[in-house]
C-alpha cells in the first residue's frame, strides 16, 4: 500500500466489508454521540458493511462498551467490540503460558480478558508474578504503580495494553495509559511490549474477529488509528471529528498518512476520487493544489476536496525532498 491517498469507484461502505471504528472522536465525544454517527453506521450496515468497534480503552468490558453505544443510538453487541484489554491479553498469552501468575494493573476489562486466557491474577509483587500487564483505569494510584515496579525489578516481564499519552475527556485532553506507563518505565528502566494501537496486531485481531477480507480502519488520530492501519497494511479513513485536523493530515509523515479523508462517518456513503496530477497541479474534483516556492497553494472545489488535493500535493513535495512553509498553510473551513 502506497503512502498516499487512494480512490474508489464505489462508496466506501460498498468497497470494504467491515469498518473497524474507533470510539471517542469518531462515534462519540464524551457522553454524546457525534450527530452523524448513528445514521451513518446504520446506513453502512444496510449497505452490507459489518461494523466492529476498536478501542484503546482497556478499562471497560466489551459488554459495557456495547451498552454505552446502544444507549447513544448506535446498536452494538459485545461481540462487535475489540478492546485493548483483549489485545493485551492475546499478547500476554503469546509470551506467558496459561496458569502463570500475572499482576494486573488496570480496570475490570483487563482483569476479565487476562483471566479468560487462563492466567492467575495476583495483586501484589509479594505473590511473585512472572509478568505485569498495565492498562488504563481512572482510579489507579501510587500503590498500584509501586507494586508493578517491585514486580518488574524482581524479574517479571512487562506488558501494556497501549501507549497513548493522552486521553480525550469532556474537559479536554487528560493523561492516557502511555503517560502512566512512563511512571513505571522511569522507575524500572524497562519498556513494555504493547498491544494496542498503533501496534498492527490489534488491527489484525479485529479483522479476524470480524471475518473480514477487505477491512477499513476509521479513526480520528494519525498517531494511533492511522499509523496502526499503515503498519497493518490496511486502508485507513481519517475523520475530522476528533483529535487530528486537516492541517495535521497535510503535515503527516508517511507512516501516519490516511488512505481516505472525510468530515465524519457519513463519508462512508461517498465515492472517494483519487487525486490526479495534471500540469503540476493535484486535482480532486474541482479542487486543485500544488507546492511552489515552499508555499502550498489551493483553490477551487469543496472544502474536503481541497483538503484531499492539498494532502496529495504536500505529500508528493515532501517525499521529493521539498519543504513546506507551515506558517502559510491555508485554512480549509473544516474543523475537527
UniProtKB/TrEMBL annotation:
<dbReference type="InterPro" id="IPR006439">
    <property type="entry name" value="HAD-SF_hydro_IA"/>
</dbReference>
<dbReference type="Pfam" id="PF13242">
    <property type="entry name" value="Hydrolase_like"/>
</dbReference>
<protein>
    <submittedName>
        <fullName>D,L-glycerol 3-phosphate phosphatase</fullName>
    </submittedName>
</protein>
<dbReference type="Pfam" id="PF13344">
    <property type="entry name" value="Hydrolase_6"/>
</dbReference>
<dbReference type="InterPro" id="IPR006357">
    <property type="entry name" value="HAD-SF_hydro_IIA"/>
</dbReference>
<dbReference type="InterPro" id="IPR036412">
    <property type="entry name" value="HAD-like_sf"/>
</dbReference>
<dbReference type="InterPro" id="IPR023214">
    <property type="entry name" value="HAD_sf"/>
</dbReference>
Amino acid at each position: 500500500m502506497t503512502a498516499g491517498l487512494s480512490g474508489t469507484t464505489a462508496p466506501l461502505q460498498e468497497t470494504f466489508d467491515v469498518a473497524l471504528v474507533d470510539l471517542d472522536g469518531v462515534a462519540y465525544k464524551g457522553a454524546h454521540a457525534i450527530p452523524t454517527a448513528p445514521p451513518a453506521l446504520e446506513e453502512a450496515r444496510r449497505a452490507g458493511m459489518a461494523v466492529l468497534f476498536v478501542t484503546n480503552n482497556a478499562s471497560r468490558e466489551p459488554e459495557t462498551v456495547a451498552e454505552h453505544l446502544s444507549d447513544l443510538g448506535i446498536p452494538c453487541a459485545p461481540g462487535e467490540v475489540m478492546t485493548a484489554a483483549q489485545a493485551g491479553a492475546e499478547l500476554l498469552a503469546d509470551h506467558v503460558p496459561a496458569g502463570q501468575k500475572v499482576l494486573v494493573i488496570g480496570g475490570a476489562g483487563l482483569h476479565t480478558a487476562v483471566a479468560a486466557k487462563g492466567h492467575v491474577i495476583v495483586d501484589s509483587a509479594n505473590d511473585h508474578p512472572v509478568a505485569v500487564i498495565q492498562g488504563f483505569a481512572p482510579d489507579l494510584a501510587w500503590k498500584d504503580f509501586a507494586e508493578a515496579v517491585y514486580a518488574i525489578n524482581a524479574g517479571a516481564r512487562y506488558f501494556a495494553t497501549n501507549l497513548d499519552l493522552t486521553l480525550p475527556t469532556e474537559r479536554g485532553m487528560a493523561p492516557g495509559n502511555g503517560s502512566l506507563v512512563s511512571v513505571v518505565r522511569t522507575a524500572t528502566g524497562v519498556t513494555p511490549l504493547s498491544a494496542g494501537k498503533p501496534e498492527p496486531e490489534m488491527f489484525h485481531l479485529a479483522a479476524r474477529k470480524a471475518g473480514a477480507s477487505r477491512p477499513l480502519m476509521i479513526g480520528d488520530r494519525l498517531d494511533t488509528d492511522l499509523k496502526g492501519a499503515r503498519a497493518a497494511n490496511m486502508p485507513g479513513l481519517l475523520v475530522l471529528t476528533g483529535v487530528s485536523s486537516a492541517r495535521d493530515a497535510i503535515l503527516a509523515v508517511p507512516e501516519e498518512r490516511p488512505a481516505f479523508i472525510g468530515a465524519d462517518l457519513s463519508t462512508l456513503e461517498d465515492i472517494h476520487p483519487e487525486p490526479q496530477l495534471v500540469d503540476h497541479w493535484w486535482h480532486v474534483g474541482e479542487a486543485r493544489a500544488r507546492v511552489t516556492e515552499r508555499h502550498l497553494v489551493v483553490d477551487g472545489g469543496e472544502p474536503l476536496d481541497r483538503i484531499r488535493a492539498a494532502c496529495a500535493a504536500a505529500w508528493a513535495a515532501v517525499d521529493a525532498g521539498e519543504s513546506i512553509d507551515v506558517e502559510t498553510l491555508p485554512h480549509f473551513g473544516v474543523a475537527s
